[in-house]
Recover the amino acids of this structure.
C-alpha cells in the first residue's frame, strides 16, 4: 500500500514516542525509516521489531559499557561516531537490527567511503556508505563477517537480510518515492500504529469540550 | 508574534502576483450541482507549465452537524487540489473519498485536501437577496466577510496526498504553502458560484448575480486551532526562513536613501485603506478589541506624522519612520508599520519570497561540538529561559497533546505534580528542556563533545539539536514558555496566519481564531489590473475610491 513519506515520518516518530523513546532518538528513527523507504526498503517490519525488543536493551543512559545495544538508542551514536571519527561505543558492540542501522548511516556523510558488513540469518551483507550517504546494499556471500572501517565493529542479527539493492536502484527509488510515495506493508503499518496510538491522549469529555477551544457545533 | 500582519511577502500575495506575472489561465468551471446544491464543481488552471484542478464536492449539511473542529465528520463542501486534469476515474475515486476527509484515502495525485462550511446566516442572506433580484446588505456582509469558512486545509502528504517534496522544485507552486493557497483561492470562487447557483434555484427568473465590488469584498473564511502551534515549534528552520525574509525586506527598505513621489503616494494610500479597514474590524474578544481601538488611534498618529513637511526628505527617511513608530506606537501599529513600509518597494523585496522554503538537510547537527561551545550557544540564544522559574507550578501548568480522536491537538492542564513529563505530551517543552539540560551540564565535563554527552544522556539529543539550529537559524525559535498557564496560543496562530496573508483576525478564545482570506483579492480576469498587487486591507465597497 502506498503511503506518503510524511505519513511514514509521523507514524514512526510517534510510535517511538509511544514506546517512551526520547524525542531526539525518535526523530532519528523517523529519518532512518524515511531514508530506507526512499531507497526502496520497507523499514516497518524492522522498526516494529526494534520497538518491540526495546525493553531488552534500552536504558537511555551510558552506552559505552554495553555490548548488546538497541539500534534505536545506539544507531545515532554510531552514525555520529563514524562521521567525526570519535569512537564511543565498545568495539564489539552488537546491534539488534543492522538493517535499520543502515537507515541511520544512510544520511551520515562518511568519508572516505567504507563498507560495513554484517551476518544475518546465515547470510553476509555489506552496506556501502560514502560522502553522499548510502550508495548500495549488497548481499555478496562473504565468507566471514567483513568490516572495512576505521572503527572495528561487528554486527549479528536474526533479521532477514535485505534483497540486493544496487546504487542505481537506490537512486531511482529516491526519485519514485518523492513523486509517488512509498510502498509499505499494510500489516506492518497497523502493527506500527499499535505503538503510535500509545502516544495519543485519551479523549475525555473535558478535553473534548474545552481542549481545543471551539465548541462542538458552530452556527453563525 | 501576536500582533503580526500580512506583508507583500505573504504567501497569498506571492501567489496572486505569480498568477499575474506568469499569465495563469483559468478555465470556465465545470459545474454539476442539483437544485439543493449537491454535486461537484471542477476548476482548472494552467500555470504555463502545468495544469492543476480543484475538485469541489458539495453536500449540504444539517446545521446541527456544522463544526469548525477537527473532530467534525461532515461538512458542507470538501475539496482536493489535483495535480493535473482529473480523469473520470479520478473524479469517481475522489467522490468516494474526499467527503470522508481524514477517513478517506488519497494518492500522490492529490496535492491538497480541504473542507469548508457555509456561514449560514450570511450565505442564506446573500442567496435570498440575489433570488429576489437585489444585492445583499453590505453591512451584513461586512459583519462576516465570507460565505464559507475552511476548517482544515491539509497538504504535505497528509492521508496519502503528495509529499511536499513532489512539488518543491516546481516554479509555479514550489514556494511555501503555494498549493494550499491556490486551493483556497479556488474555494473562494466555489463559494461565490455556489451562492449564485442557489439563488437561481430559488428563483430562476428574477435571480441576479453579485455585483463585482460586493463579490470582490467576499473573501473565504478560515477557522484555525491549536495545530499551527506545534507546526511552528517543529519547523525551526522553516520559520527562520520566513522571519529572515521579512527582516531582510525591512532592513532593505530602512536602508533606502530617497523615496520617490509615487512611493510616498503608495504608502499613504495603503495607510488610508488600513485606517478604514481597522475602523471596520470588529471582534467579540475583549483583548483584541482593545488592541484594535489602540491601533486605530496609532494609525491616526502615524498619518499625522507622515503628513509633516519634509518627512521623506531626510537621509534614510523610512528608517526614521520605523524608529519613530517603535518609540511612539503600540505593538499592533509597530507591526503594521513594517507591512506599510515594505509595501511600495516590491522591486526591492519581492524576490525574498522565493527563500521561504527549507530543505531537511538544512537541519544542523554537529556531534563534534564541545559542550562548552554548546553552553555559549544557550547563553546567546536562550537567555529568555533564565527568566522562567520552572519550580513555579504555573510555568509547567499546560500540556499539549494529540487526542486519539482524529489526532485533534488539544491543550490541557498537567495532571501530575508538574515535575515529570506525561508519556503522551507533545515535545514542545523547549524552555523547560533547556533548563534541565543546563542543570546536567553544570555537573558535566564541558570539554567533552556533544557525541559523548548524548551517549550518556540521549534524552537531550533533541534539545541540543534545537540549540545548534538556533545558531544558524536564530529566528526559528518561539522564545516563550508555551506550557505556562499564562501562555496564549492565539498569538502563535496569528503569527503563522499573518505569513499566509490573512486579515480580520477574530479570536474566539485563547485557543482558536477565525480569519478572512483573499478578501478583496482579484478574480482570475482581474489579475492584470493596476490594483491587483495591492488588494489587501480591503474595505467595504465605496469606502475607498
Amino acid at each position: 500500500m502506498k503511503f506518503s513519506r510524511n505519513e511514514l515520518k509521523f507514524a514512526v516518530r510517534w510510535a517511538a514516542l509511544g514506546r517512551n523513546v526520547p524525542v531526539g532518538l525518535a526523530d532519528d528513527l523517523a529519518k532512518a525509516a524515511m531514508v530506507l523507504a526512499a531507497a526502496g526498503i520497507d523499514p516497518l517490519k524492522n522498526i516494529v521489531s526494534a520497538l518491540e525488543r526495546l525493553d531488552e536493551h534500552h536504558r537511555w543512559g551510558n552506552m559505552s559499557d554495553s555490548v548488546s545495544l538497541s539500534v534505536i538508542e545506539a544507531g545515532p551514536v554510531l552514525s555520529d561516531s563514524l562521521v567525526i571519527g570519535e569512537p564511543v561505543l565498545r568495539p564489539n558492540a552488537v546491534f539488534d537490527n543492522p538493517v535499520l542501522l543502515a537507515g541511520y548511516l544512510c544520511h551520515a556523510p562518511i568519508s572516505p567511503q567504507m563498507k560495513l558488513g554484517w551476518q544475518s540469518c546465515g547470510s553476509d551483507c555489506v552496506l556501502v556508505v560514502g560522502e553522499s550517504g548510502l550508495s548500495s546494499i549488497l548481499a555478496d556471500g562473504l565468507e566471514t563477517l567483513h568490516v572495512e572501517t576505521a572503527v572495528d565493529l561487528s554486527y549479528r542479527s536474526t533479521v532477514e537480510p535485505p534483497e540486493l539493492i544496487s546504487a542505481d536502484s537506490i537512486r531511482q527509488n529516491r526519485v519514485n518515492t518523492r513523486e509517488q510515495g512509498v510502498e509499505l506493508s499494510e500489516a506492518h503499518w497497523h502493527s506500527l500504529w499499535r505503538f503510535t496510538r500509545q502516544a495519543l491522549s485519551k479523549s475525555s469529555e473535558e478535553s473534548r469540550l474545552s481542549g481545543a477551544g471551539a465548541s462542538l457545533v458552530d452556527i453563525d | 508574534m501576536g500582533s503580526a500582519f500580512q506583508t507583500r511577502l505573504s504567501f497569498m500575495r506571492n501567489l496572486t502576483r505569480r498568477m499575474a506575472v506568469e499569465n495563469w489561465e483559468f478555465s470556465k468551471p465545470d459545474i454539476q450541482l442539483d437544485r439543493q446544491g449537491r454535486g461537484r464543481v471542477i476548476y482548472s488552471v494552467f500555470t504555463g507549465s502545468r495544469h492543476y484542478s480543484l475538485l469541489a464536492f458539495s453536500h449540504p449539511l444539517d446545521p446541527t452537524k456544522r463544526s469548525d473542529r477537527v473532530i467534525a465528520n461532515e461538512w458542507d463542501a470538501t475539496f482536493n487540489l489535483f495535480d493535473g486534469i482529473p480523469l473520470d476515474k479520478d473524479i469517481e475515486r475522489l467522490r468516494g473519498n474526499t467527503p470522508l476527509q481524514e477517513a478517506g484515502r488519497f494518492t500522490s495525485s492529490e496535492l491538497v485536501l480541504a473542507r469548508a462550511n457555509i456561514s449560514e446566516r450570511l450565505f442564506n442572506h446573500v442567496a435570498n437577496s440575489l433570488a429576489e433580484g437585489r444585492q445583499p446588505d453590505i453591512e451584513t456582509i461586512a459583519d462576516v466577510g465570507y460565505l464559507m469558512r475552511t476548517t482544515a486545509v491539509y497538504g504535505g502528504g497528509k492521508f496519502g496526498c503528495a509529499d511536499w517534496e513532489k512539488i518543491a522544485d516546481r516554479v509555479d507552486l514550489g514556494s511555501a504553502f503555494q498549493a494550499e493557497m491556490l486551493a483556497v483561492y479556488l474555494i473562494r470562487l466555489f463559494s461565490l458560484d455556489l451562492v449564485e447557483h442557489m439563488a437561481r434555484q430559488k428563483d430562476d427568473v428574477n435571480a441576479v448575480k453579485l455585483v463585482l465590488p460586493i463579490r470582490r469584498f467576499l473573501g473565504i473564511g478560515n477557522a484555525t486551532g491549536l495545530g499551527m502551534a506545534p507546526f511552528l515549534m517543529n519547523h525551526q528552520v522553516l520559520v527562520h526562513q520566513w522571519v529572515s525574509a521579512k527582516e531582510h525586506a525591512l532592513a532593505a527598505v530602512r536602508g533606502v536613501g530617497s523615496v520617490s513621489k509615487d512611493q510616498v503616494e503608495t504608502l499613504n494610500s495603503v495607510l488610508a485603506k488600513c485606517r478604514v479597514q481597522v475602523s471596520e474590524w470588529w471582534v467579540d474578544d475583549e483583548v483584541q478589541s482593545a488592541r484594535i481601538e489602540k491601533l486605530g488611534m496609532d494609525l491616526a498618529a502615524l498619518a499625522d506624522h507622515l503628513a509633516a513637511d519634509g518627512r521623506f526628505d531626510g537621509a534614510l527617511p523610512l528608517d526614521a519612520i520605523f524608529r519613530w513608530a517603535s518609540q511612539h506606537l503600540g505593538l499592533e501599529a509597530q507591526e503594521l508599520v513594517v507591512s506599510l513600509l515594505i509595501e511600495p518597494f516590491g522591486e526591492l523585496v519581492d524576490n525574498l519570497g522565493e527563500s521561504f522554503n527549507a530543505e531537511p538537510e538544512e537541519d544542523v547537527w554537529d556531534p563534534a561540538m564541545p559542550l562548552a561551545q554548546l553552553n555559549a550557544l544557550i547563553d546567546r540564544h536562550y537567555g529568555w529561559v533564565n527568566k522562567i522559574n520552572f519550580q513555579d507550578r504555573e510555568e509547567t501548568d499546560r500540556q499539549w497533546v494529540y487526542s486519539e480522536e482524529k489526532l485533534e491537538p488539544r491543550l490541557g492542564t498537567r495532571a501530575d505534580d508538574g515535575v515529570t513529563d506525561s508519556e503522551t505530551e507533545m515535545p514542545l517543552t523547549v524552555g523547560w528542556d533547556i533548563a534541565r539540560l543546563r542543570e546536567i551540564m553544570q555537573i558535566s565535563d564541558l570539554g567533552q563533545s556533544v557525541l559523548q554527552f548524548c551517549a550518556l544522556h540521549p534524552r537531550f539529543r533533541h534539545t541540543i539539536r534545537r540549540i545548534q539550529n538556533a545558531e544558524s537559524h536564530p529566528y526559528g525559535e518561539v522564545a516563550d514558555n508555551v506550557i505556562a498557564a499564562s501562555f496564549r496560543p492565539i498569538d502563535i496562530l496569528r503569527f503563522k496566519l499573518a505569513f499566509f496573508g490573512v486579515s480580520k483576525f477574530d479570536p474566539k478564545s485563547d485557543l482558536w481564531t477565525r480569519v478572512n482570506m483573499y478578501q478583496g483579492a482579484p478574480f482570475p480576469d482581474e489579475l492584470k489590473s493596476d490594483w491587483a498587487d495591492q488588494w489587501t486591507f480591503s474595505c467595504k465597497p465605496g469606502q475607498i475610491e
User: Anything to note?
Assistant: The longest helix of chain A spans residues 23-39. The CA atoms of residues 105 and 217 of chain A lie 49 Å apart. Residues 139-161 of chain A have pLDDT under 50 and may be disordered.
